Amino acid sequence: MVKVGIIGGAGYTAGELIRLLINHPKVEIAFVYSTSNAGNRVGDVHQDLAWLDLKFTDYVQTDVDVVFLCLGHGNSGAFLKKHSFSDGTKIIDLSNEFRLKEDAHFLGKDFVYGLPELNKEAIKKAQNIVNPGCFATAIQLALLPLAQSGKLTTDVHVNAVTGATGAGTSPSATSHFPWRDNNFSHYKAFNHQHLGEIGESVKQLQNDFDKEILFIPNRGDFSRGIFATAYTDFDETLEEAYELYNEFYQGSPFTKVNQKPLHLKQVVNTNYCFIHLEKHGNKLLITSILDNLLKGASGQAVENMNLMFGWEQTEGLKLKANYF
Fold it and tell me: Which residues does UniProt mark as catalytic (predicted)?
């Protein structure tokens, strides 16, 4: 069995990781690190796991096979400066610290960008992975087939809505229930932090892309999920667009191209991203939906672990939607 450590065990992404890994047939959780909860039962924080005989610790086991960093954004580097792991330990970071190419080399470690649909072969060989952002995952999966075929020739307009869990567990003025319930708002219009990684991935496939990705992120009044729509010029037919997308995702078990319109309940509590296409005049409208805590975070991190160890990409991730 592969021994796993989780750093920053009290947050939403760590909770999802624990739920996935306790049912993964090839791993064993060696420790869950949380300085604020050391000695407490994991089930006291993640209350659906009240039956689990596991406690948080403030001790780091350095000889685990893989460690997941589920720390707040900007904290992974500080943690790695203070704690070292064995040469054989693989690291999967879920924060935004190492996602851009200019930041991907840190303390002698090279971090590979962990979007399996884009970098599967590099992930298989990697020692260290940085997980993509949740919005970034949904938007990249909407655009990459067009980029590979060189068909992103005009500006791309993106509008996406995320659930409250995207803001993390720490309460804020826009995340507590009385504000969020029956409410809707946008934030960080045109300058969201995920735009950098999206742009790098697009240019990885279409190096001459020099247009803008105009992104409006929104807060929805639901707990989890991302519903993203993107549109751009596309002079070919809808059938030709579907051919591009089906071919691109042929070897991707968790990204599915659908002929019918989409809604969030199709993917919440699963590791799937669903894609739908429509043609309106010379515009191609792409809808991309996923669960921000699974395909947008912890589920994709487990995908990356599976690939790094040479297992089936779907190992431990065959989840069903909670439709009602």
Answer: 134
Which structural domain range is residue 284 located in?
134-292
Q: Which residues pair with 161 in a beta bridge?
A: 218, 227
Q: How distant, in Å, are the alpha carbons of 11, 18, 21, 96, 142 from that of 47?
A: 12, 12, 16, 27, 35
265-287 average pLDDT score = 97
Three-class SS of 179-233:
HHCCCCEECCCCCCCCHHHHHHHHHHHCCCCCCCEEEEEEECCCCCCEEEEEEEE
Active site residue 70: no
Average pLDDT over residues 29-36: 94
The structure tokens listed for 174 are: 């826009």
Question: Is the Cβ–Cβ distance between 227 and 264 less than 8 Å?
Answer: yes
Nearest to 69 by CA among 115, 11, 119, 141: 11
Identity of the residue numbered 183: N
Catalytic residue chosen out of the listed positions 134, 160, 285, 301: 134
Residues 28 and 109 in one domain: yes
Helix (H, G, I), strand (E, B) or coil at 49: helix
Stated pTM of the model: 0.94
Using DSSP, how many helices (H) and how many strands (E) does the chain show? Answer: 9, 15
* pLDDT digits 0-9 by tens, 297-321: 999 999 999 999 999 999 999 765 5
pLDDT in tens, 167-188: 555 555 566 666 667 788 888 7
75 and 60 share one domain = yes
In a domain, 222, yes or no: yes
pLDDT, residue 324, reads 45
Phi/psi for 188 (5° steps) reads 50, 45
Residue 222: is its pLDDT beyond 90? no
Task: Label residues 59-90 b or e (16+ Cβ within 10 Å = b).
Answer: ebeeebbbbbbbbeeeebbebbeeeebeeebb
